[in-house]
Amino acid sequence: MINRRTLLGLGALTALALTAGCTGGASDDTASTGDFSGDIKGAITVLTNRTDLVNTTLPEYAKKFEAKYPGTKVTFQGVTNYDDDVTTQLSSGDYGDVLMVPNPVAIDQYSQFFEPLGTQEELKAKYRFLSPATYEGKVYALSVGGVAKGFVINKRIWAQAGITAPPKTPEEFLAGLKAVDAKTDAVPYYTNYKDGWPLAEWNTHRAILGDPAINDKFPADPSPWQPGKIQYIEDSLLFDIVHAKLSEKDPLTTNWESSKPMIATGKVATMLLGSWAVPQMQDAAKAAGADPADIAFWPFPYQTGGKFHANIDGDKLAAVSKNSKNKATAKAWLDFFVNESGFSTDQQAIPPAIDQPLPKGLQEFTATGVELVETPAATTNSGKEDEIIKESEIDLKGPIYRQKMVDVARGAAKGDKDSFFADLNQRWNKAQAQVMK
Amino acid sequence: MTGRTTAARSAIEAGRARRKILHSPWLYVAPALILLITFTYVPVGNMIWYSFHKWDGLDVTMDPVGLDNYVRVFTDEQYWRVFLISLYYFVASFAQIAIALYFAVVLSFNTRFRNLFKGILFFPYLLNGVAVGFVFLYLFQPDGTLDTLMRVLGLGEHTQLWLGDPDIANISLAGTSVWRFTGLNFVLFLGAIQSIPGEIYEAAEIDGANRWHQFRHIIAPGIRRIISLSFILAISGSLSVFEIPFIMTGGANGTRTFVVQAYQTAFQFRQIGLASAMAVVLLLIVLLITWLQRRFLPDDEVSLS
């Protein structure tokens, strides 16, 4: 129980963060594109979160790049705890030449750390997923591949319960899970509560309303947990699933790695994730001796105008460091990586370049009549939602309040759906009034 | 001539001064002081500075907000309620001290395999906190090690969702913490007990004192300082519990302690200012408790005569 070091550790971390903050350096240039002049030559360092690929696939791409531009050298630095570590590193001023944008960096801070790549007007004809990287019309990063959002399911188990087509409404979906519960031995839905981040997937379905202005309307709304609104639709479904005991018995001991073979072999029927998870689950099926074809991808059970809409998102963004000594080569690598390396195809991701074809798994998904929608980022209320999240400490993009919601739903914490949503509305409202004043 | 004497004198003085520096205690204390100031006092100073600002840890500018952060820590239920979780760990620390004291006394006498038992008791403290978290995560799983063990013992119907049930989760976590830190208390007590001269026991035995009398009149008073130190550490420790709930539940299911909350405020919600204010509050509370304890339990000289 003796744990004074934690306190000191926090202090030291904060001190580190401070020094970083001071050396970050503000940007005052008004040019829409950074200065990428100079020869494409010399060495660059690339920071990446893909520690699994850093010694295998990535060096192969580098080899191709070095063959295309003789005299260049690309080194990779894999960072395991990417978001936290690189955010701290940013303030030191030394963070490689090309890097993935860490999530905690707010959009209005991009110009402090990254080189602008051009205006959205110029680039939108060529690339998808620009809005999350655009601030005041300038694009600071490119997505390395996109994913669609929806349910990863075990087709065989759902078929055993008598359901072969994606349910169209939340009620139908719940009835389907109940049938799975009654007719099979599988756990109908797996929350992955302990690892947390899979719960955040419940925040990624705003496209189902088919409203392109939703991200601007959202922060303007003082109480998003009202029936009929997007936050209510999403969270309510999760609440109902858990409340009807259609999820795993002890959510506190879930484990992401072991959930993959569980869905692959049919011990679990459903999980809400992105299309990126499909190849991983199929690999798990192969490893466990099950049929990879059992794994399928379904849209969120909600239709607007008689049609499913599925959100597509740029997964991770890559940017050129403002402090790079070799921006010409860095930019060339970024372009090569996004357009020519084959990374998105290898990862079965949606290619960022508009003219490249969708991966096979998603072609099947769209063939069932699902429209893929890229929801534009907020423009007039840009950055406001993040501010409200920070101020209210309701982490829409994280697991903390949803874990609490699961606890309430399974009867492990006080309250019911109405009281919990009312409390959320109240806390959100208070912060929202402050931020939007 | 005068010039030369002045030069000679100043050279002598310089030599003296140098010798003075060499003999000055500061020279020897300097490395420790520099490390202490750089890694303890400067960060604490920074933390106090941040606590009066609104800052996300990245921005170039920090907005001064005065006492706002402190007001929020004390008025918003979300922040001060997490202190209540510390009570579980505080209660558990009594068990921890009692277990450690019992084994320290037993193993300070000639017991068979006593070095082996000393090793076994101290071992958990040597393990990395993260490893402990993962080990106990498996232990507490439904149908995990603990449930299996209970079934073997015929206690099958008493198995629980050890982490999933909010009434039990904190007790499970506090139990893990007891398992982990008993070894430290044990070693402190053992060392203190062994510093009591052996003749005193011999004399006591000749006077007809049994083991309990020996503990009551020799050991307990002899290690009173260490016991009181253990309580101070137990209080500050239970207020600042972090890694066990952080690794095992991430603070979910009503197990969020003050430091886990501070961590989330700082790094999940990027409110470094608010989190610093929380850390300052924690620091002040720990200082206050230590001071109170010193006032009420004065550190008087131990005498065994």
UniProtKB/TrEMBL annotation, chain A:
Which domain of life does this protein belong to? Bacteria
Q: Where are the transmembrane segments?
A: none
- In its keyword annotation, does this UniProt entry include Transferase? no
Q: Which UniProt keywords apply?
A: Cell membrane, Lipoprotein, Membrane, Palmitate, Signal
InterPro entries for the chain: Bact_solute-bd_prot1, SBP, TAT_signal
Which region is the signal sequence?
Answer: 1-20
One matching Pfam family is SBP_bac_1
Query: Looking at the keywords, is Lipoprotein present?
Result: yes
What PANTHER family does the record point to? ARABINOSE-BINDING PROTEIN-RELATED (PTHR43649), POLYGALACTURONAN_RHAMNOGALACTURONAN-BINDING PROTEIN YTCQ (PTHR43649:SF33)
Q: What is this protein identified as?
A: Sugar ABC transporter substrate-binding protein
UniProtKB/TrEMBL annotation, chain B:
Gene3D superfamilies named in the record? MetI-like
Segments crossing the lipid bilayer: 26-52, 87-109, 121-140, 171-193, 226-248, 268-292
Domain (ABC transmembrane type-1): give its ranges.
Answer: 82-293
| Membrane topology annotation | Multi-pass membrane protein
What Pfam families does the entry give? BPD_transp_1
Localization recorded for this chain is: Cell membrane
- What are the alphabetically sorted keywords of the record? Cell membrane, Membrane, Transmembrane, Transmembrane helix, Transport
Q: Which domain of life is it from?
A: Bacteria
Where is it mainly found? membrane
Family that this chain belongs to: Belongs to the binding-protein-dependent transport system permease family.
Q: What is this protein called?
A: ABC transporter permease
